[in-house]
Amino acid sequence: MQKLVLIRHGESVWNQENRFTGWTDVDLSEEGYRQAKRAGALLKKWGFGFDAGFASVLKRAIKTLHIVLEELDELWIPVQKSWRLNERFYGGLQGLDKAQTIAKYGEEQVHKWRRDPAEYPPPITKEDERYPGHDPRYQHLTERELPLTENLSETMNRTLPFWQEHIVPAMRKNQRVIIAGHGNSLRALIRYIDNLNDDQITDLDIPTAVPWVYELDDQLNRIRHYYLE
To answer: SS3 string of 62-88?
Structure first.
């Protein structure tokens, strides 16, 4: 049996301000730093250790993983970062206050934008400062890979190749793996591992900086999962 740990980043400044974040590279809030530190202490308490880490290229996930590994005295393990583990790209919603957006468009529409696997948030244009083509960390991506908006299904489609090409091979080598990601990139992985349908994934909430543990059999099929407490 193998154990895999998923962890959503600690609370970000924009989480604290109730704003849509997406690929905007906002930092952890002070509470987010504390949450990450508590997560690391919890993993240490239960005897977890890791051989390989994976994270998005956004600082709130990178720093969360760094803090967790520091608590475990495992900062030395290799960590691979990929845009494929980024949060869902929320297009024109990025930076907007969620409560104000609900007041303008209605709760039902905003819920669809956030959770419906097929629903697209309003797109941006390539001239928008939020367009990832302006960011050097994405300079290697093709125009097709640079989103103007993104639904959950597309987040899943760009996350799963990284899972298959990098994370699964590490686990097949019996490496103990931790993945620091975001609400929607982790939702995409959970949907795949647990074979969830659209309704089930729509209702799934993932709290910040609480380790989600999978126990997997030798074929990497789920035995069970649980939050570490």
So the answer is: HHHHHHHHHHCCCCCCCEEECHHHCCC
